[in-house]
Amino acid sequence: MKKNKFLTAFVVLVYIFLFAPLVIIAMTSIGTENYIAFPPKGFTLKWFLTVFKSEAFISSMITSFVISGVATLAALIIGTPAAYGLSRYDFRGKAAIKSFFFSPLIIPGI
């Protein structure tokens, strides 16, 4: 039982470590000050309006959506028939192709 309490305390600390910066950033993003102050003294959305009115931000978001959409469509167009062929048919080299596709899951990242 003590091991379980230790594990619970550890998990809670990890969650605090991971989510505390997000909470602090969210709280300071709605503040009225030009600098980081926690807790914020007022409430405003002017920082969000400034970002969303920025031409560079809008251009970057459009570029990101276009690239991600094209990549998704390409993956679906290429991947669906490939997956169907690998699962339904037997052919020479099938094991090698499957091994190549599963290699990112087997080989650890650096």
UniProtKB/TrEMBL annotation:
Which keywords, in A-to-Z order, does the entry hold? Cell inner membrane, Cell membrane, Membrane, Transmembrane, Transmembrane helix, Transport
Give the primary localization class: membrane
State the annotated membrane topology for this chain.
Multi-pass membrane protein
Q: Where in the cell is it found?
A: Cell inner membrane
Query: What InterPro entries does the entry give?
Result: MetI-like, MetI-like_sf
Record bears the keyword Membrane: yes
GO process terms (BP): transmembrane transport
Mention any one GO cellular component term assigned to this protein in its UniProt record: plasma membrane
Spans through the membrane = 7-30, 56-84
Name the SUPFAM superfamilies for this protein: MetI-like
Q: Which domain of life is it from?
A: Bacteria
ABC transmembrane type-1 domain location: 61-110
Please give the name of this protein. ABC transporter permease
Q: Which organism is it from?
A: Clostridium perfringens
